[in-house]
Write a structure and sequence with these properties.
Length: 146
Amino acid sequence: MLVIDPATPADLDAIDEIERHSFPAPWPRATFEAELARAHARLDVARRGSRVVGFANYWLVVDELHVHAIATHPDQRRLGVGAQLLDHMLATGRGAGCASATLEVRCTNAPAIALYQAAGFRTVHVRARYYQDDGTDALVMVLALA
């Protein structure tokens, strides 16, 4: 059974490990430490038993939910963890009165794009050479929550 809870400092090692396995330019641990202290930031973890198998990082800013990252441990991928984290984020945003959700995703990240499209996100813009590590374009995707 998967349980989604707010992350704590004790979860940062697992989040860091998942981050390093998931992104070509992983964010440093200090970024996630800072997220735990920001009032508008949310950092949630998905657990199977006591093990952190995924995480979601997002912001609730006025009436907008901004998705920063969803990541799943490699041995837990394609088991619905990402979809459950996304559903949790969207429900949290709706509960907080957010009217929309937005995100950027690498145009080459087909699994993430498929996840977002399945949830109803649509591409509204392409940011050319958005990712500094390799110059990949980003798709800007939006979902109405209201």
